[in-house]
Amino acid sequence: MREHRPLVVLTGAGISTESGIPDFRSATGIWAKYDPMEYAHIDAFRRDPEKVWEFYGRRLSVLGDAEPNEGHHALAELEDRGWVRGVITQNIDRLHERAGSRALVEVHGSIRTSSCLQCGAVLPIDQVVGMLPVPRCRNCGDVLKPDVVMFGELLPAAQIARAEQLAREAGLLLVVGSSLEVYPVAGLPLETLANGGTLAIVNRGGTPFDARASLVVDAGAGETLRALAERLE
User: Fold this and answer.
1) Rounded CA gap, 108 and 13, in Å?
2) Is the pTM above the cut of 0.85?
3) Mind listing the pLDDT tens digit for each residue in 182-227?
4) To 10 degrees, the CA torsion angle through 32, 36, 37, 39?
5) Is position 41 annotated as part of the catalytic site?
6) What would the pLDDT profile of 48-78 be if each residue is shown by its tens digit?
7) Which CATH number is 1-21+68-108+155-233's, of 3.40.630.30, 3.40.50.1970, 3.40.50.1220, 3.40.50.300?
8) Which of 4, 72, 96, 108 is catalytic?
């Protein structure tokens, strides 16, 4: 990190599992229990929004109880100290924000709000939780949609453009807790490498980019990032 700056961080579900939030793609992950095409696709939402909200309602209770862990706090501290230029996250759980990260790019949206696809009304999560199990728009009565990117939807253009810019400019892209399997976000390491930057990965289990990384640490995000923050003091 001292030799390859600026530092940009890309985080996935693996950083939040230590806060008690299940991941998606492991053998015990969410998609092992729920078919994503039935519960997390935009067509499924349009076809049966009540069924989709049954899934998201349970997730909101888990997310609401979760707290940022040492990994989230360490990244926020490193940003405050000038080491981290930006954190790109695939997570929707707001834990980076709650830990204090400010230069945050949420490429898959956030549970922060839900919106009405009919009239455009937007409600914050605290109000949405109070309207479960099926939150409906107070203006037109249509079922609200959580402001997360579902399968079949495009990523928010401004967010992915910012993520690609950060990856291109990174002297070091540090991937934390991502299997690097979901595109286009999984292609961000290619942006860094193509522009002369270096790749490092902290993840439990391998990724398709391990062979191209200068450093691979198979360990937990919290312990690794806390040790890193202390070493850089």
Assistant:
1) 12
2) yes
3) 889 999 999 999 999 999 999 999 999 999 999 999 999 999 999 9
4) 120
5) no
6) 999 899 888 877 777 878 899 999 999 999 9
7) 3.40.50.1220
8) 108
